[in-house]
Amino acid sequence: MKLSRTNKILEKMKQQGINQALISDPYSIFYLTEYLEHPGERFFAVLLDENGDHKLFINALFPLEKDLELEKIVYSDTDNPIELLAKIIPNGSVVGIDKVLPARFLLPLMNHLPENKFVDVSQIVDRVRMIKDDEEKELMRRASILNDTACQRVINSISEGKSEKDVAKDLLSIHEELKVDGLSFDPIIAYGANGANPHGTVGDRYVKPGDAIIIDMGGIKDNYCSDMTRTVFWKQPSEKAREVFEIVLEAQKRGVAAVKPGVRFCDIDAACRDYITEKGYGEFFTHRTGHHIGLECHEYGDISSINETKCEPGMIFSIEPGIYLPGEFGVRIEDLVLVTEDGCEVLNKLNKELVIIGE
């Protein structure tokens, strides 16, 4: 197990009077053990114990030869894993349950242990995962460097005869060439009016002169995710499109400049949103400014107008303001930032100034 990570969770459990914690989120289990498994409908969990007697529950379908430095309890499809679990948890203890444990497991466990108190432990685990250690920071840097390279190749691949779907297929080939392990989310390749939908679906559209092209993409490398967005133009953009692009770019730069320890997430959001509003496009910035990222593309925490959580060194999140004009076009620019001791490190290095292709 990763003892430094485990001990941080145990310390916070102790502060809140939690005796055991049942961790069933596969990514949180990987965070603690460096073992990733997606068990489908089968029970899969780590039981953290205040006395250090940690256990992994895993179905025999998933052979595990690696020594994870905790007791392994293997059960078959004819066993009842919740009965096995209930025999281990002391009566009357406080048990932390994470947010992804299905009710089909939690409710029987509660029936087996009527004298126990069950509480939500997700905030503890999620907040520990928010602060990346040195190993994670380096993995996130590497993932972002690969994403920069892949994004530039995607931009280079766009041509008049290629649909959005064609470019998305190119991305898969580019990832294979770069030895990226997979997609961190379904990419968005949005031409023209399709970009006015912040999560536009890749389709059969072909690029037209003047189109804004939103490219929102990310990959997985060594289990860590990347994410970035660039907006480029096919041939000459209109004056309005240029204006909107420059507004989004300045808003994004202001958001990045606001990032440092002690600054509230809502203030980073305001740095972007207030500028876009001042320029007359506030109603067309329809989403939060960013999200946290790591083992998952969207992790706990967001950069929004209502989140008063303060930045801490080691946090990694996106800054991605946008303007979306229905029936016309959209513009979004996104970088990942790592909070440092005195500011932030921008993980994406790819040019984000105005780019015109196809000329």
- Quaternary structure annotation: single chain
Head-to-tail CA distance between termini: 54 Å
Reported for the largest beta sheet, the result is: 6 strands, mixed
* CATH topology (fold) name of the largest domain: Creatine Amidinohydrolase
Q: What is the CATH homologous superfamily assignment of the largest domain?
A: Creatinase/methionine aminopeptidase superfamily
Number of domains: 2
Number of strands: 20
Note poorly predicted spans.
Answer: none
SSE string: HEHEEEHEHEHHHEEEEEEHHEEEEEEEE
- Relative helix content: 25-40%
Shape: elongated
Spatial strand order of the main sheet: 4-3-2-1-5-6
Give a written overview of the molecule:
The protein has 359 residues and is α+β, with helices and mostly antiparallel strands. The chain has two domains: 3-130, Creatinase/prolidase N-terminal domain (Creatine Amidinohydrolase, Chain A, domain 1); 134-357, Creatinase/methionine aminopeptidase superfamily (Creatine Amidinohydrolase), CATH 3.90.230. Helices cover 33% and strands 23% of the residues. It is built from nine helices and 20 strands. The chain has helices at 3-15, 26-33, 81-88, 103-112, 122-130, 134-157, 164-178, 239-257, 265-278; strands spanning 20-23, 45-49, 55-59, 71-75, 94-97, 117-120, 182-183, 188-191, 212-217, 219-221, 224-225, 228-234, 290-292, 299-303, 316-319, 322-325, 329-332, 335-339, 344-346, 356-357. The strands form six sheets. It has a six-stranded mixed sheet with strand order 4-3-2-1-5-6. Helix 3 (81-88) crosses helix 4 and helix 8 packs antiparallel against helix 9 (265-278). It is elongated, with a radius of gyration of 23 Å. It starts with a helix and ends with a strand.
